[in-house]
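Dear colleagues,

I hope this message finds you well. In preparation for our joint manuscript, I am sending the Cytochrome P450 E-class, group I (Triangularia setosa) sequence together with its predicted structure, so that both groups work from identical material. I would be grateful if you could confirm receipt.
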Amino acid sequence: MTLLETALLHLQAAWDSHPYLLLSIPLVLYLLVSNVKSYFKLRHFNGPLWAHFTYYWFVSKVFRARMLNTLQELSDKYGPICRVGPNDLLVGDFDEVVRINGVRSPYVKSDWYTTIRFDVDGGDSVVSLMDTAEHDVRKAKLIKGYEGRGRGQDKGWMDKVVDKQLVELVRLLREKYVKQGRRINWTDVVRYFSVDVTMEALMGEAWGDLQTDSDIHKFFEMSDYSVPFMHTVGSWGSLRWLTSSWWFIRKAGPRVTDDHGLGKFIGIVKKEVAKRFSDPEAKKGDMLYDWVSQGLTPRECELDLVLGVIASADTVAVPMRTIFLYLITSPLVYAKLKAEITAAIKAGTISEPITNQEALKLPYMQAVIHEGLRMMPISAFGFPKRVPSKGDMMCGQHVPGGTDIFPNNLAIQRSKKVFGDDADVFQPERWLIENTRGAEHRSLMVRHIEVIFGHGRWQCPGRMLAWVELNKIFVELLRNFDFQVANPRDPWKLSVYSSVCVHEFWVNATEAKQQW
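The corresponding C-alpha cells are as follows:
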C-alpha cells in the first residue's frame, strides 16, 4: 500500500467517525491565516493586545456601552493613533481627521455605513450610499432644504419651525408638570421636542409627540433597542456583510405593515411622498417641497426623509440632555447664564421666543453650549473612512490601503493642547474671548467643536437646524422656569456606544421669578 493510499484511508476513517471535526479544519486554518495576515498588516501600531487579532475586544467595549471611558483611556495610553481591531485604527488628531474628511480627500466610506441600511426593497439613503460621486450628487440636491435656502423657505424659516415647538414645550412643562408639582422625565420630553421639530421641518407637520407627551408611533421604543445592536454590529467588521446584506434586511428589516416603530413611519412617509408627487403645490415651505423641486425621485425622497428622522430626532436630543445636566449641576454657571438672559430681557435685545441671531449675541450662553458639546460629543467616535489603496501617512506613520479609520471625537474635544490643562472640567469661561489666546485661538476651538457634526464632504446636512434648536431652547427654558436634578446621587443612566444614550434623567421645575 502506497503512502497516498494510507493517507486516504486515514482521512476516510476520520470522516466516518468525526465529519464535522474534519470540516472545521479548513475554517480553523482560514481564521489562523487571516488573523496572522491582519496582525502583520498593522503590526507597527500600538493598541490592546486582542485588538491586533480579533474584533472581540472592540465589540465587547461597544456592546457594554463603555466607550466614554475607553476612548479617554486609549488616548492617554497610546496617543493620537492606536489599533482597535484587525483592520481598524482610532485617530484622535484633529488635523488628520479634518484632512481625511476633506472635500477633495481620496478617502471613501468604510462598509460600516452599510449598517445604516433599512429599506427592504434595496434602496440607499444619502448616508448608506457607498459610491462617492452618487453621494455628492444626492447631497447637493438635499442641502438647500436642510439649510433653509430651498424653494418656499424664507430667511426666518428655521426660527419659525423651532418656535412652534418651543411654545408647545413651554406649555407642556407648565401645565402638566410645574403647576401639578410633578417630576419631568427630561429624556423623553426633549426627544419629543426634537422629533416634532424634525418632522415639522421635513414634512411640514409635527407628529404630535410633544403635544401628547408620548411616543405616538413607538419610534423611540424601537430606537432604544436597535441602537445598541447597530453600533455593536458596525464595530464587528466580519459581520457587517451579513447584517447589511439585502437578504438580511428583507428578512429582518422594518415593513410598512408594522403597526409601530420604523416600519409604521416608513408607511407614513410613502403616503406623504405619493401625495406630493401627485400635487407638488399642495403643501409648500418644508424640505420635501424643495426636494421635489430639486428633482429627487419619489424613492430618494422616501429614503432620505426616513434617514432625516433617524439621524436627527434623538441625536439632537443628546446635547439638550447633556448640556442641561452640566448646566443645572453647576450653580455658578447656572446663575451667570440666568443673569445674562435676564439682562437681555430687561434691555429688550431678545424676542420671545428668542431668534437665532439674537442668541448668537449672548456670549455666555454660546460658551455654555460649546462647552457642553465638548464635554459630551453627540458621537463619541465618528463614522470610519477607508484609506485609499496606495496607503497614506498619518501621524508620522504609514497606514496600508484598505484600513478603516475611526475618528476619536472624545479625544479631540479633550485636547489639553487646545483647551488647556483643565480640559476634562466643564468650564464655559474658557470660551470667552478674554480668556482665550486671542481670536485665532478661539476660532481653532470652534473648529474642533464643528467636527462633532462631521467635516467637509461628510458633514451632517442637518447641523444648522440642530444649532438653531440649541441656541433657542435653553433661553426659553430659563426664561420661564428654574430647574433642579431630581436625584443628585444618580441623575441619569448613561450608555455610550458610538452615540450617547441617556435614560432616566429626572428633573424638578418651578416657575421662574421674573426680575424684569
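For the figure legend, we might mention the following. The chain has a mean pLDDT of 89. Residues 298-328 form the longest helix (31 residues).

With kind regards,
E.M.
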